[in-house]
From TrEMBL, chain A:
This is Cytochrome oxidase subunit III. PROSITE patterns: COX3 (PS50253). The keyword Magnesium does not apply. Residues 1-191 form the Heme-copper oxidase subunit III family profile domain. Belongs to the cytochrome c oxidase subunit 3 family. The chain crosses the membrane at residues 20-42, 54-77, 89-108, 128-154, 166-189. GO terms for cellular component: plasma membrane. Keywords: Membrane, Transmembrane, Transmembrane helix. GO terms for biological process: aerobic electron transport chain. It is a multi-pass membrane protein. The keyword Zinc-finger does not apply. Its main location: membrane.
């Protein structure tokens, strides 16, 4: 009997710390990109910096990721209203948009290569590849996080439990969206 | 007892071990000792791995100390042990650099970061804030196994053909970025980077967990200002790690691209063997900025847990409340904040703008203020205390001594004008070994002696503990203090045979002296190892609360089980430093004792009242006759 009482005590307690863990992970991510963008500024100030046009496809990828944030929110709202069909739909859309974003980023790298900006060469180009590449790696991780509530819906796990997964995915995904907007604006201002 | 089991796997596993005497453990060997998710077991795993790494780091230092003391002598034994790295009984110069590098890396990261924070944060955070376990026990387990893998990779780098990494623990490019630069820049360096990447993952997983647990899982009544100072230390340490390790990760990623993919983040205009490399446009100074943005907070990541442990140990064993509890928290916060804006003092001689240098000097010297607050508070806590000289207390006092000695030389090095002379000399070696190495390791040892009964349910031997303390304390000073004078004379660090230079030949005698003192120090650690490992099995059974301490961990049963408290988690009614409270029956009142049970010792302050005492009325408050209280305290004050 005591076992059961304690277990519920623990699950009740555990939701807040786990959400908090996600926020702390985001803080670590922010520091990672802060390090990259500040080294970009420091390095750029030292001169010998080849200037080039940012790939025009970045605009499209920005639109795609903002759209995916909207569908993410839709999934969250449907989850809250226990509307499983639209939650499934919205999560699928978010994942598809995320993959489209990744493809778009790859195509913009192709644009860069066409412009003769290579990964190996002047650091101005290398930085662009590293920054967008690591953001892309985060997107891949984000898609993995999105799969958790989606699988939860298909497996019919308790919605209370799945809501936590959904909330975590939603926090992380919106963060990735805002992160990309920051990086894009940063690159627009500093190139 | 079976009804007290909390962990769900305990119900399902029936793989009971015959030798497992505790009836309430029904876990398999693998889930109990190896892939454990219990914070206490993970703490022990961190501690023992940390100790093993510490012993390895110490042996490496003895090896290069032998080279420094007897640069011309042949030791055939070296060839037997080291093979081609000790050909002809002489240490290989490239291997010397690797020894210095790996000694630094192991001590800074593996022993004093993971070994110290990993052990005591894991052990004490759930215990002292009153939680059943960490926010995410799974992440906690992952954190240990990342750390373990990082250690294995680091040690394995000794077995590759070109030897372990050799560019120094700060791995400055270009040495670290060009695999062909020297033997230590080859495969060993790659393994160093892989190992550190795993180490960073481990630190972040651990740190995120510590912060989340402290902020979200405190028991009823455990407000932030009722937390023991250990927890404050661990909290801020974890926050520093969370903010600074990702920056090192960024630096390491760029370095890996430079090494293996041919980018030029840190490389420019380099010739190897007369041939120009294609790299252009990189800046090695950029790496130093990124590295020291981690590197400086890192030294506080090392020292703050030690300071937290010391606060607890000194207060408990002085039988007095810690002096200036809020000032201690304030100084922790001050140190944490300042640690992020001082990294430039490692780079005074990189051609930094002198104005920027003086800004960094200013912020650096301000750190002396919170550090001095801590020191004076320790001394004031000791002042007229009823001091119990347990081994833990000796080591805690040792920390205070080293913290003062090493801190004072920090003031010298923080001045750019003096640093230009002392940079990269033995003065720097002396400074950071005393203030960071010795202080932190003494704090860690204080913690081990103090919480050993809690970790293993048995007591360590006190006499061996005292001997260990005195030998370590004396040898540490004998090793590092003379290095100040070598540094003032301009002796550069990291040199294989600096005594070959005519101006430094006079230091050979001192080098021998230092090496002998270092060997004495190493032998003293054998006492500790014996005391530690033998008493896990043979030590006297520990009582519930051996040091008469107030904090929550001593209210848990001596026997461990997952979940810490058999019944409900106790609530907390007071701060953790009610030692020798006037009017109290005993000289300590645990945090779990409600104010209603201590009417004779309650003060208006305990109820949050800070005005005129005679105005205060409360059912649990007994106004004291002032002269009677003084009389009562007279024997104690003597």
């Amino acid at each position: 009997m005591q076992d059961i009482v304690m277990n519920t005590e623990e699950t009740k307690l555990n939701i807040r710390p786990i959400k908090f863990v996600m926020w702390l992970f985001i803080v670590a991510s922010i520091m990672l990109f802060a390090a990259f963008t500040s080294s970009y500024i420091v390095r750029r100030a030292e001169g010998n910096w080849v200037e080039f046009e940012l790939p025009s496809l970045f605009m499209l990828s920005t639109v795609l990721i903002i759209a995916s944030s909207a569908t993410m929110h839709w999934a969250y709202l449907s989850g809250k209203k226990l509307n499983f069909a639209s939650q499934k739909m919205a999560l699928w859309l978010t994942i598809v948009l995320g993959i489209a974003f990744l493809i778009c980023q790859l195509l913009s790298w192709k644009q860069l290569v066409a412009e003769r900006v290579y990964f190996v060469g002047n650091p101005s180009g290398s930085f662009l590849y590293v920054i967008s590449g690591l953001h892309g790696a985060h997107i891949i991780a984000g898609i993995a996080v999105l799969l958790a509530p989606l699988i939860g819906v298909y497996r019919n796990i308790a919605q209370v439990k799945n809501m936590l997964r959904l909330e975590l995915a939603s926090i992380f995904w919106h963060f990735l969206d805002i992160l990309w907007i920051y990086l894009y604006v940063f690159l627009l201002l500093n190139h | 007892m079976a009804s007290q089991v909390i962990s769900p796997e305990a119900v399902h596993h029936h793989d009971v071990h015959g030798h497992d005497a505790h009836g309430h453990h029904h876990e398999s060997f693998l889930s109990k000792y190896v892939f454990s998710m219990d914070h206490k077991m993970i703490a022990k795993q961190f501690l023992i791995t940390g100790i093993i790494m510490g012993v390895i780091g110490m042996i490496l230092s003895i090896l290069f100390r032998i080279q420094l003391a007897w640069p011309d002598k042949e030791f055939p034994l070296l060839e037997v042990i080291l093979g081609k790295w000790g050909e002809g009984g002489r240490l290989n110069p490239a291997f010397y650099l690797s020894l210095v590098t790996i000694h630094g890396t192991i001590m800074v990261f593996f022993v004093l970061t993971a070994g110290l924070s990993g052990t005591f944060s894991n052990l004490l955070i759930p215990y002292q804030v009153g939680a059943r376990d960490m926010a995410s026990p799974f992440m906690n387990m992952l954190s240990y196994w990342f750390f373990f893998s990082a250690s294995v990779v680091m040690i394995c780098s000794f077995f590759v053909e070109t030897g372990p990494a050799g560019p120094g623990w700060t791995i400055y490019p270009p040495l670290s970025a060009l695999p062909k630069a020297m033997p230590g820049s080859g495969t060993g360096m790659t393994m160093w980077l892989i190992s550190m990447a795993m180490f960073i993952a481990s630190s972040l997983l651990g740190g995120i967990n510590y912060i989340s647990t402290i902020l979200n899982m405190r028991t009823k009544g455990m407000s932030m200002t009722r937390m023991p100072l250990t927890i404050w230390g661990f909290l801020l340490t974890a926050i520093l790690g969370l903010l600074s390790f990702p920056v090192l990760f960024a630096a390491v990623i760029l370095l890996i691209f430079d090494r293996s993919f041919g980018t030029s983040f840190y490389l420019s205009d380099i010739y190897i063997g007369g041939e120009a490399l294609p790299n252009s446009g990189g800046s090695p100074i950029l790496f130093q900025h990124l590295f020291w943005f981690l590197g400086h907070p890192e030294v506080y990541i090392i020292i703050m847990p030690a300071l937290g442990i010391t606060s607890e140990v000194i207060s408990t064993n002085s039988r007095k409340p810690i002096f200036g509890y809020r000032a201690m928290i304030g100084s922790f916060l001050g140190i944490s904040f300042l640690s992020f804006i001082v990294w430039g003092h490692h780079m005074f001689v990189t051609g930094m703008n002198p104005f920027l240098g003086s800004v960094f000097m200013f912020t650096t010297l301000i750190i002396a203020v919170p550090s001095a607050v801590k020191t004076f508070n320790y001394l004031a806590t000791l002042w007229r205390g009823n001091i119990q000289f347990t081994p833990a207390m000796m080591f805690a006092i040792g920390l205070v001594s080293f913290f003062i000695t090493g801190g004072v030389t920090g003031l010298w090095l923080g001045n750019p004008s003096i640093d230009i002379n002392l940079h990269d000399t033995y003065f720097v070696v002396a400074h950071f070994h005393i203030v960071m190495g010795c202080s932190a390791i003494f704090g860690m040892l204080a913690g081990v002696y103090h919480w050993y009964p809690k970790m293993f349910g048995r007591m360590m031997d006190n006499k061996l503990g005292y001997l260990h303390f005195y030998l370590t304390f004396i040898s540490a000073y004998l090793v590092f203090f003379p290095m100040h004078f070598m540094g003032l004379d301009g002796v550069p660090r990291r040199y294989y045979t600096f005594t070959e230079f005519e101006m430094f030949t006079k230091w050979i005698a001192l080098n021998k002296f230092i090496t002998l003192a270092a060997i004495l120090g190493a032998v003293a650690q054998v006492l500790f190892l014996y005391n530690f490992f033998v008493n896990i099995f043979k030590g006297k059974r520990a009582p519930q609360n051996p040091w008469h301490s107030n904090t929550l961990e001593w209210t848990t049963p001596v026997e461990h089980f997952h979940g810490n408290w058999p019944g409900e988690i106790p609530a907390v009614y007071r701060w953790p430093y009610d030692y020798s409270k006037p009017g109290a029956e005993e000289d300590f009142i645990p945090q779990t004792v409600p104010l209603s049970e201590t009417v004779s010792s309650n003060t208006p302050h305990d109820f949050g009242f800070h005005g005129d005492e005679s105005q205060f009325v409360h059912e649990y408050y007994q106004p004291k006759n002032v002269s009677a209280a003084v009389e009562q305290n007279a024997p104690q004050a003597n």
